């Protein structure tokens, strides 16, 4: 559990840094998928070896839903611009950072009252889900605003 918390702190720091740093908008990002896979495996392993109450599972599910809602709101706070080469860039704003802090605080608050094993196991799943939703919505905004699809991972690998 302590290892998961340390990993979570590193992931949170990395995510916040990336959120506030100008980066190209991409149709696909590996980080949310990696976090979803790790979190999914950890959560399944928790349920194979531990028992959590329905209340704990419900609270974690509520935290996930709130996190997804905050991710949708965050997606609208990200500043988008196109450079001279036509590449669309994204940069988090102060509002993006505030919404991240709220999301992390609500998730930590829920995790203080649920089964520590479930809280620890579902942490990466939470971050993967909220990053995936935010990235998808930022990409959709960029496509609507700039009128062209963003290049995905497969296209970049081939071309």
Structural description of this entry:
The protein has 159 residues and is mainly α. The chain has one domain (2-152). Helix content is 74%, strand content 6%. It is built from seven helices and three strands, in the order H-E-H-H-E-E-H-H-H-H. The chain has helices spanning 2-20, 30-49, 54-75, 94-113, 116-121, 123-146, 153-158; strands at 23-24, 79-82, 88-91. The protein has a three-stranded antiparallel sheet with strand order 1-3-2. A hairpin with a 5-residue loop joins strand 2 and strand 3 (88-91). It is elongated. The model is unreliable at 152-159 (pLDDT under 50).
Notable characteristics:
disordered C terminus; 7 helices; 159 residues; 74% helix; elongated; mainly alpha; 3-stranded antiparallel β-sheet
Summarize the structure.
The chain contains seven helices and three strands, in the order αβααββαααα. It is mainly alpha-helical.
């Amino acid at each position: 559990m302590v290892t998961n918390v340390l990993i979570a702190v590193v992931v949170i720091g990395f995510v916040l840094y990336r959120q506030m740093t100008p980066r190209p908008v991409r149709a696909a990002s590996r980080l949310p998928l990696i976090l979803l896979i790790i979190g999914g495996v950890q959560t399944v392993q928790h349920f194979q070896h531990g028992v959590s109450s329905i209340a704990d599972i419900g609270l974690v599910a509520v935290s996930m839903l709130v996190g997804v809602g905050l991710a949708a709101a965050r997606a609208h706070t990200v500043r988008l611009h196109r450079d001279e080469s036509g590449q669309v860039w994204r940069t988090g704003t102060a509002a993006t950072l505030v919404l991240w802090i709220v999301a992390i605080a609500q998730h930590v608050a829920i995790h203080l009252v649920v089964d520590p094993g479930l809280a620890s196991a579902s942490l990466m799943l939470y971050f993967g889900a909220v990053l995936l939703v935010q990235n998808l919505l930022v990409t959709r905004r960029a496509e609507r605003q700039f009128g062209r699809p963003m290049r995905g991972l497969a296209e970049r690998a081939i071309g």
